[in-house]
Amino acid sequence: MQYINKKESRSFYIGLSGQNLVYSFIGGSFFTYFMTDIAMFPALTVSVLLIVMKVWDGVNDPIIGSIIDRHTFKNGEKLRPFLRYTPLPVGIATVLLFIVFSTEESLLWLRVSYFIIMYIAWDLVYTVQDVAMWGITAAVSPDSAERDKFVQWARTVGSTIYGIFSMGIPMVLEMIANITGSSMALMTLVFAVIFGLGGAMLSYRAYAAQERIHPNPQNQQSSMLECFSLLFKNRMLMLVTLSNLLGAVGFGGQLVTYFFKYKLPSDFLGAGSFIGALGLTTIYAAVTGAPGFIGMLFANKMKKIFKSYVNALIFMQSCNIAVRIIAYFVGYDGVGLWIGMGLIGIGCIPLGAVSIAQTSIFCDSIDYMEWKTGKRTEGVTFSMQTFFTKISSGITAGLATLALHLMDYKAVDDSVGVFVGTQSAAFDRWIWPLVMLTPALASLLSIIPLLFIHYTPEKRALVERELKERREKQA
Q: Domains of the chain (ranges plus CATH)?
């Protein structure tokens, strides 16, 4: 039986695209660049800010998830209403976050305080929306095959929008600022209104998704403590989360813009080019990341070939390790940089399906916990998704800016024009190996927890069959 119609799917994907427009402005490396080279926060300050704020994010997300799990609206839904009420607050908070009212050193304390307050406000409303957005993917259909297909396309659409705009926004923003002579701070605010507020309004369309699996009121969690106890009993969830946290050591991707700005000559793409370091970062991201969308289309094929998404994840990470080691030894002199980028792009083809595989495993873990305990945990489970996304990105960005500090990095204003040779000897020595090899190390570490997940296709079929029988009896 097919539960999800095309109109519902289409509306949800449009809403998900709007949410990813918002996150493309904050989740990528541009956010770190904004803090160091536009808002002009010192690198060490940025490192501390990112790590502390993301740790708070991680603590905050499961709390919000447990609150969602313990609350049911009058219509019997617990996730969908949040998709209606959160878009406007998310959009307003996004715009306020990117206001740079001064770059004076004497006002650093005030600027940092304002930034922290705005980030906390943005994080709270965005987390509620994000948990509801992904939590509902586990409740749109009781059929796991249909749900897998829905998740596959949701991740493909969301990742495509995020990939295109997280790569394109910095490049276009920089080019417009260079052509018009406008300040980067002003253009950043304009783009925050267009993509932050505009994307948030578009995310309202996700409200079209329907909740078809409702929690049994008699089995609903009675306390936050019970929610957390169920969370830590979910072995699959904890192992996937640990895998992602270990992957956070791959902070080299956050340093790509700095590598292009301070290691490549300004005429790298030809004299008179309006494309600067942010533009080169976009080109790099397109060449190395765009092939990953091919992997998304064949995620289900990889699952069948490797018998499970867990085995497929191990294969994906292994490919990334191999190509990055080769690219490092190829180097960046002459055409070496383009060859290395091409190799990474090839390795990213299977790696593109990582988010699809992880979300599918999350949905399986929710079914498995219902099978074991009778309780569904969409809220707290998908809060763990936002948990590891934010914690991982915070650790990654924090380690990147800490590395900049240890390499004695000093930001050079974009108006100077010449950047090669302006950084320390330590920066010149370590920036390339950090960019290329830390992601390979992250892939290696992330494989280890996956080796301990043992959820076979046979076990999945058994869980789904028995859950169907229970729900029919309850109905």
A: 9-209+223-466 (1.20.1250.20)
Query: What is the C-alpha separation between 432 and 327, in angstroms, rounded?
Result: 11
Render pLDDT for 334-390 as a digit per residue (tens, 0 to 9): 788 889 999 999 998 998 888 888 888 888 888 888 888 888 777 777 777 667 776
Tokens of 460: 């999945």
Assess contact for 412 and 161: CB atoms under 8 A.
no
CA-to-CA separations, 377 to 136, 336, 381, 382, in angstroms, rounded: 11, 49, 6, 8
How would you write 129-185 as a 3-class SS string?
HHHHHHHHHHCCCCCHHHHHHHHHHHHHHHHHHHHHHHHHHHHHHHHHHHHHCCCHH
The Cα–Cα gap between 143 and 61 comes to 28
Tens of pLDDT, residues 432-462: 999 999 999 999 999 999 999 988 888 888 9
> What pTM, to 2 d.p., does this model score?
0.67
Q: What pLDDT digit, counting tens, does each position of 2-31 carry?
A: 788 889 999 999 999 999 999 988 877 788
